[in-house]
Fold this sequence. Notes:
By secondary structure, this protein is mainly alpha-helical. It has one domain (about 1-155). It is built from six helices and no strands. It has helices at about 1-15, 30-55, 60-90, 100-120, 125-130, 130-155.
Amino acid sequence: xxxxxxxxxxxxxxxxLAGPSVADEHAAPADEAxxxxxxxxxxxxxxxxxxxNLLLEPDEAVLFWPVYDRYQADLDSVALRFVTLVxxxxxxxxxxxxxxxxxxxDESLAIEHDRAxxxxxxxxxxxxxxPGRKVARFYQIENKLHAVVRYEIAREIPVIPD
Length: 162
């Protein structure tokens, strides 16, 4: 599984997550169509990686994927807030005042809270369609994928200067 997670990380990097640094003031911002394509590609690869690692029986897959699609749609709304937060931060990190810094910290914590709430909300629906061990495995895979993506994003985001 470690190899498959590394492959996803490389795939995400190849799709542009490690393109021009978000700190690069001269890099052209990606247009919305490009961002939508990137998100669709990441989600498709994520779903394929989950399928490859979760090892669902055909009868489990029929029940699991509709729940997963709802779960992912709920996570997407939280992820869009994170994208907005990163954009706000990278536009203002050199000149931000204390009030904006506080607003961004509060929003970051709210996003983390809301992501955890979505994940918790779906434990029971997943448990209704999969054995407990597979649900635990699914959440492990999700955690690893999220860690890879967040690491790559964090690597590109500059720290507020003194």
